[in-house]
Amino acid sequence: MTIIKNQSLKAYNTFGIDVNAELFATWNSVQDVIDFTQNPELKSKTRLVLGGGSNMLLTKDFEGLVIKNNILGRELVSKNENEVILKIGGGEVWHEVVLWSIAQGWNGMENMSLIPGSMGAAPIQNIGAYGRELKDIFVSLEAVHIETGEVKTFDLEACAFGYRESVFKNIYKGQYVIVSVTIRLTKTGDFNTSYGSIGVELEKAGVKKLTAKAISDAVITIRQSKLPDPVKLGNSGSFFKNPIIPAALYDELKFEHHGLPAYPAEEGFMKVPAGWLIDQAGWKGKRVGKCGVHTKQALVLVNYGGATGQEIFQLSERIIADVIQKYGIELEREVNIF
Description:
Elements: E1 4-8, E2 20-27, H1 30-37, H2 40-43, E3 47-50, E4 56-57, E5 62-69, E6 74-79, E7 83-89, H3 94-103, E8 128-129, E9 132-133, E10 138-145, E11 151-155, H4 156-159, E12 176-186, H5 198-204, H6 212-226, E13 234-235, E14 244-246, H7 247-256, E15 263-264, E16 269-271, H8 274-280, E17 287-288, E18 291-293, E19 301-303, H9 309-327, E20 336-337
Helix pairs in contact: 5-6
């Protein structure tokens, strides 16, 4: 594992924030991770493990060690006439795995097309989109314990997945490195086109036979129409979670705020679109200095070029305060702040 000093992280985060890491290295194998855990000097340093750099906001230089997870691999573990079990390296790019699986004729990832980030980062927040979540296809993952070097397997129950939640975001935060994820995909169609505007997009495209590729193409079209390409305009995708509120509170709010949308969540709760709240609070398309809220999707904060992480963070603070004042709902950031 080669250590680089004073490395710029601009190319390693999708916001394009130009801050430096005191030390920088990459993990290319599970053994690299284990070797790291046996190095007391490196292990004692403050560390940040990077996947695709898409779910984070860097607000200052990182004093410590930043490590990029580059562990690759796509292994067919088993198959039968109905399904396949795949083991994917933690450094694999999520969207590339989605497209590859569809090309093999395997279904289950199509609704989650074009989500930025890596496979190893996906379980941390149980990524999802358009009615599907990682937990729907998840079998298990392997993770290395930073303190002991032990390689541990976590099954579905052990991960305790929730809405953008897992044990790796709370009780085990910073304690493990996810080196592989095992998923189950099907060979037969069990498609979900009921969420969002997938059905409309399929109809516009004249799709007669429903396939994983057709759904993936529709999702990509929708996402590209709403979400900016981080290569052209720095962003981290959805910056805020959709708040889940008690159904009783929603019933009160919808009379005061006509048109307030919501979707059923767990029993007794409703999920309110954060983008709608931000839009109605007047923030959609608003620019503040070198950053702002995207013109087509209010959930997305953008770096127009040269913005600092602190400026983007302060923008998010103002949005949260305005939504609380107008609706009494406190938005929660989906991205990690460093």
